[in-house]
Amino acid sequence: MSISLRCFLAVLLAFAINVVHAQESRTPGVIGVAEYEQMKESGNASGNFQIVMDLENPIQENGRDQIQITSESTLRGGGGDECACIQPLDASFLIVPFSGGEAPEFRNDDGSSAEIELPFIFCLYGQDYTSCFINNNGNVSFGSAYSTFSASAFPSNQFTMVAPFWADVDTRNTESGLVHYRLTPTSLTVFWDQVGYFSSQADKLNTFQVIISNGEDALISGGANVSFCYGDMEWTTGSASGGVNGFGGTPATVGCNKGDGINFIQLGQFDHAGVDYDGPGGQADGVSWLDNLTFAIDACTASDQGNVPPLFPSLSLCETIYICQGSEITLQFLGPEVNQLISLEYTIPDGSGLTASETSNSGSTQLIITAGLGSTLGSYPFTVIATDNGTPALSTAVVFNIVIIDVPEEITILGTPAICSGESTFLSIPTGYTNIEWSNGAASNTVSVDQPGTYTVTASLGGCDTSGSIEVTLSQNPAPLISGETLICADALTTLTLTGAGQDQVEWSNGSDQLSIEVGPGNYLVEVINSLGCSGTDSHTVSAFPEAVLPIDFYECDLSASVDGNNLAGSWAVTSAAGPVVFSPETNQTTDVAINVSSFGSYTFVYTEAECEISQELSIDFLPVPAFSLNDTLVCLGAPVDLVPSGSHTEFFEWDWGTGEISSSITLVADSLLTEIAWSASNECGLSSGIVSLIAEPCQITIPNVFTPNGEGPNNFFVIENIDKYPGSTLKVFNRWGAEVYSSDSYRNGWSPRTDDVAEGTYFYILGWKLAQETKYFEGHLTILR
User: Fold this and answer.
1) How far apart are CA 177 and CA 205, in angstroms?
2) What's the topology of domain 633-697?
3) Cβ(272)–Cβ(284) under 8 Å?
4) Are strands 116-124 and 187-197 parallel, antiparallel or unpaired?
5) What is the SS3 assignment for 9?
6) Comparing 633-697 with 706-784, is the CATH topology the same?
7) CATH architecture of 554-622
8) From CA 294, how far away is CA 222, in angstroms rounded?
9) Of 352, 357, 397, 398, which Cα lies nearest the Cα of 379?
10) Which pLDDT tens digit goes with each residue over 343-394?
11) Which of 462, 458, 359, 313 has its CA nearest to residue 402?
12) What distance in Å separates the CA atoms of residue 494 and residue 517, rounded to the nearest whole number?
């Protein structure tokens, strides 16, 4: 059986406390929803009410099954979700300004607020208060603030407080929430929102709230003036109180204490994880028992006799109890006091076919309700009044619906009952089932299985157990095989053929669904899917023949070069060359080859790959290494001089004379006694450079007045001393009648006239001596003798 019963405890505790102090009583009964709502709206309602709600399976309007009158007092219900009394944080809440905390968050440990003036009168065990203190450690105190972090059990004559969860709260960790409060004309709400514990721990967080009021605020029902509300509770104790990782040590205390050692109510003490609970006076309990509970307490007139009514800790306000035909449920009632006995009063609904029995021991009585196979399907109201043997004897009334449902049919398992080799399939059951357990250990509606066999599932539907099974078989996967060429030319096509596919569905990676496809180079995948959805795959790679890999165009400082490629078969050819070319090896059938040339210059080669006849071009520049020299030169001052470095292949170099001249030689004029000229010749293979000195000296010219051009002796030429050192000097010779017989634009002592050209006699000359900055002219007579 699966029963969700938890939230209902909150209302039962509120009822139980109010029963103790009712001035008058009346027999519990049931009123309709419409009557309850009319009484609430008019403000004239009387009686203490419990509203049993079934949100998932409403039987009457608004999802409320019935309203139970438990005792006579003034109704002040809060409305809303009866199982969630926590007031959500909104703009009406403020952060509590604790001492020791820094604004605006006021994070702190063991802090307290300043005294808060209440705009209403709060009554605690007959004592009226108009002010209070909010203490960080989970309580609201009166008359004095408390920083005490280790809780005491109630009753205590040391503390006057209302304690929704008195423990060592520490909000200094920024992962912890804060403490907020809201003050209205009739109530004070204090909200510990996801708070941590000492020392600055936030791995576990508690959420709880207390509301104190004047007894008439709509937030608290049933005439009570205190409400404890809980969210998720995860810790109990700080390390300064002996706790380890939030548990153990001094337990946390929940309750109200007048401070006189007599008047109190202690709902429990908590020191460990879990949901166990053995009553207010028993051992320390599991803190998760408080999760989502609500307690409404009349702290003004609560009993001082030390007796607490029986507790029913397992019934939820928000759900109806379901029971299957042929099964039973157990309801447990606890006595908070030691050795207390509990008696039960209940009536089996007519026509239901239900039966009930009791088992009792000290402090506990169990009511076992059975729906036999012959019980009648339907919904039945059920009331149990549990009464203890304390002084005075107190009672708790519980009202709920029991819905008898038919045993569910066998579960239908959905999914494909066959799996493919190496794969899995999903099995599922319809939604609505709870407590699901598969034979492979899974606990969800859907399970993945990868092995053949019988799979069973058990689950509950409306609290009733049922089961189902399915046989999963193994299906072999298709085994497709692709055949075809693996190496083709880059621009060629080939055919790939699929075998082993039969009539199965074929899906190629290029989108084709045929058994054969025509493709170029690339990677190809085929998937074959059979009728059961099982698939098999194969892949095939068609590669392109490799293309020749040649180096990029390069140069060599020699008459030979080595080409390193990818050793692909093919042949070389020469398309342009500066001279003969010799390949080595002579067959030159691969990309790897040595090339020898006879002349420096640029050469262009073409390599053609043999398989797919793809050609590539390569250019190589064969260059000489620069090796030039130029010696210092002795010149005549003002005379031009030609500078020509010694060396070969001058055309393959870049020349620099520092003058802008880029030719391999230069003509300069020695216009100073010492001139230094920097020169360089460079190319990709290196640099040759130097500095040449022109050493100049003054040179005189001597013009003879007679010479004998007869082919005999040293005086055959008209020699002007040093004129050869002054290029550009001019010479003109005239006969006595003024006719020109000789002329030179750059005379270098080379005139030796023949007899038939120039006869003996006297002649007139004009010499233009060209110096660096000027030309000087000399005139005179010379005699030719034979």
Assistant:
1) 8
2) Immunoglobulin-like (2.60.40)
3) yes
4) unpaired
5) helix
6) yes
7) Sandwich (2.60)
8) 13
9) 352
10) 999 989 999 999 999 988 776 788 999 998 889 998 998 888 888 887 778 7
11) 462
12) 8
Burial bucket for residue 53 (CB in 10 Å: 0-12, 13-18, 19+):
buried
Grouped pLDDT means (10 residues each) for the chain, 786 residues? 30 32 30 38 35 30 30 26 69 93 92 96 94 97 95 94 97 96 96 96 97 90 81 95 96 94 87 86 88 81 57 50 83 68 90 91 83 89 86 75 84 88 87 89 91 91 82 87 92 91 84 93 92 86 90 94 89 93 84 93 93 92 95 84 91 92 88 86 94 86 90 87 87 93 93 88 92 84 90
Domain ranges of the chain: 8-81+309-405, 94-291, 414-475, 481-544, 554-622, 633-697, 706-784
CATH number for the segment(s) 706-784: 2.60.40
- Rounded to the nearest angstrom, the gap between the alpha carbon of residue 35 and the centroid of all alpha carbons in its chain is 58
Report pTM.
0.44
Q: In this structure, what are the phi and psi dihedrals at residue 706, rounded to the nearest 5 degrees?
A: -155, 145
Question: Residues 438, 457: contact at Cβ < 8 Å?
Answer: yes
What is the C-alpha to C-alpha distance for residues 333 and 398, in angstroms, rounded to an integer?
Answer: 10
Residue 600 · residue 624 · CB < 8 Å: yes
Contact predicate 384/330, CB 8 Å: no
Beta strand spans in 418-534 (E): 418-420, 425-428, 434-438, 446-449, 453-461, 464-475, 481-483, 487-488, 494-499, 505-508, 516-519, 522-529
Domain range 8-81+309-405, CATH architecture: Sandwich (2.60)
Residue 176 to residue 170: CA distance in whole angstroms: 8
